[in-house]
Amino acid sequence: MTLANNMITNMSGDGWNYTSIPTDNPIGINIFGSIGQSGINVYHNSINLYGNTLNQTSAMSMGIYLASLSNADIRNNSIVNNQGLLGATGYGTVGVYAVTSNAQFTLSNNNNYYVSPTGSGVAYIGQIAAAGSLNLGAWQIATAQDANSVSGNPQYVSNADLHVSLATNSVLNNNGGTGTGITTDFDGQSRSVTVPDIGADEFQGTYVVNLTIALEACPSNNITVALYTSGCGLIASQTIAYRSGSIYCCNTLYNNFKCNNMLDKSNK
Asked: Are 226 and 237 in contact, with CB atoms under 8 Å apart?
């Protein structure tokens, strides 16, 4: 079974002791069964848990939960869990929780993990059994995978809208992996066949290039700046007027030249 292109948000609860009834906690994707689950593919999902609502002893919020005897292929997901403790009671916040061992990950790669609650309690990228990982490097060691995964704020439009804000250079951009068979996104838009975006939204980002041009002499005409791909294909161009009124000025700094989604999306 494949779970793909879902936007999962607006979940909350006070939770329960994760060591006794883990599924009584806020969970983005729950891979659970009395006899275990196998053959599960979790691809290109965007998860966002937020708010400080946990208020029971050993309560834990989880972006993805892998129950004992369950295993899954987890790739190209954006896992954000900022849901922490309401007060001093509870365990804390975990991106991915696997109950037994890293053998539960048949594959895990090209994911984005972002765990940054404002409440108290633990804040782990992931946890396997009782061992939590505070950062991506520790999680890569724990899983023995995730070599191409990243960790950063994905810049969702809002807590409720998990599309990516196009005014930002999101960590999700171009960092997905190929080979999942997922060719479209949440909105039915085609995904890149070479550098898909992480998460449910395949998007066109915005980049800002700051240019400083040094001239040996004052120009007598406007200057055109052009950006090209490594294959000499034109990306975009911009004409810069080096003048103030009718007087050309040598000291003008042209900032914020915007090249919408073209710097490293030329193959999309």
From this structure: yes
State the CB neighbour count (10 A cutoff) for residue 21.
10
Question: How far is residue 233 from each of residues 31, 229, 258, 267, measured CA to CA in Å?
Answer: 46, 5, 17, 11
Rounded to whole angstroms, the Cα distance separating 190 from 36 reads 34
| Element spanning 248, H or E | strand 247-248
Asked whether the beta carbons of 107 and 76 are under 8 A apart, the reply is no
The strand pair at 7-8 and 131-133 is best described as unpaired
Question: What is the pLDDT, as a whole number, of residue 209?
Answer: 65
Could you count the other beta carbons within 10 Å of the beta carbon of residue 207? 16
pLDDT number for residue 243:
54
Phi, psi angle pair for 140, to nearest 5°: -65, -35
Give every residue of the chain whose pLDDT is below 70, as ranges.
34-35, 167, 205-220, 240-268
For residue 215, the model assigns a pLDDT of 64
What number of residues does the chain have? 268
Query: What pTM value is reported for the model?
Result: 0.79
Helix (H, G, I), strand (E, B) or coil at 140: helix
User: What is d(CA 157, CA 56) in angstroms, rounded to the nearest whole number?
Assistant: 31
Q: CA 164, CA 202: separation in Å to the nearest integer? A: 9
Q: How many angstroms separate the CA atoms of 84 and 118, rounded?
A: 7
